[in-house]
Write a structure and sequence with these properties.
By secondary structure, the protein is an alpha+beta fold. The chain is 30% helix and 25% strand. The radius of gyration is 19 Å and the shape is globular.
Length: 301
């Protein structure tokens, strides 16, 4: 689903459009709607992945429940029958892919935890021997498990720009020492809980990004999404083998096609995805949802 069409009548309420989610002001609260858009290399691709927004929303809701004893979250309700009456005409378009949430004063840092070395973290390690200022042992490979999970924050870049690595001292300079410590502890706690539950499903949680803000009472609270294939790297544990790129349950399939098969030069808008890439990407998202939650995914279409 795009942000147009059924929700075009809410356009005057839209306060933000991200790569995937659109936010609408509903009184003092926010309506988060996860579209089926997919992004790669800081571009929003021309195709959509059917049901992606629903899968991300339902998986986030499941994880928010698993983390409820660790940290509060911003969700008021995801039951469209309990939404304000003004949203009733849009119930069909919102069902399954939206959440009514409290507004948060978001922290100006992307909070990332890594338990395995890959992606941009591996590239930084190969160049410096460290990630975000955290020195790591020598001899690690792409996909290596780290001795302990580490906090590897980044800046929050606008859509179309790339997040930049931050050291812990950088975070302290931005938000202060006390909050920096709380962000690090919270991010690592969420990662460890996620990794523990994913392991039971035969899945490795390699890394994850969490969005954190303060609620109106000043309480540090999880926002946006959590532990989805868009914000995390999930790998099948049975196929993990350091020293190469790992099979994954995220959009790596799309990235690989763009890099190796599409002929795209990354200096122009990206090409449309072939139907088989769309279908296989959707299947990866569905499989991640079902393996992690133990529930069957039911399309809202």
């Amino acid at each position: 689903m795009t942000s147009d069409g059924p929700l075009s009548a809410l356009e005057d309420r839209r306060v933000h459009s991200g790569k995937v989610r659109d936010l609408y002001a509903i009184g003092a609260d926010l309506l988060l709607v996860a579209t089926d858009r997919i992004s790669a290399f800081d571009y929003i691709l021309p195709n959509e992945i059917p049901d992606k927004g629903t899968i991300l929303t339902q998986l986030s809701l499941w994880w928010f429940d698993q983390l409820a004893d660790v940290v509060p979250n911003h969700v008021i309700t995801a039951d469209v029958a309990r939404y304000p009456e003004e949203l009733a005409p849009f119930a069909d378009a919102l069902r399954g892919r939206s959440m009514l949430c409290r507004r948060l004063d978001m922290v100006a840092v992307e909070c990332v935890a890594r338990g395995y070395l890959t992606g941009g973290g591996f590239k930084e390690y190969a160049e410096t021997g460290a990630v975000c200022g955290v020195a790591l042992p020598t001899g690690l490979e792409d996909g290596s498990r780290l001795p302990d999970a580490i906090f590897t924050p980044t800046t929050k870049a606008p859509v179309g720009q790339h997040d930049e690595s931050m050291s812990y001292d950088d975070v302290t300079a931005v938000v202060g020492a006390e909050l920096a410590g709380r962000l690090r502890d919270l991010t690592l706690t969420v990662y460890r809980r996620g990794a523990q539950l994913a392991e039971k499903a035969g899945i490795i949680l390699a890394d994850t990004k969490v969005e954190v803000g303060h609620d109106p009472a000043g309480l540090l609270t999880l926002g946006d999404e959590v532990l989805t294939p868009d914000s995390s790297r999930f790998w099948p544990a049975s196929e993990w083998h350091p020293g190469r790129a790992q099979p994954s349950y995220d959009k790596q399939y799309v990235r690989d096609w763009l890099l190796h098969d599409s002929g795209w030069d990354r200096t122009s808008p990206p090409p449309s995805l072939p139907d088989d890439v769309v279908d296989r990407t959707r299947a990866k998202y569905v499989e991640a949802f079902e393996r992690l939650t133990g529930q069957q995914f039911v399309s809202a279409r």
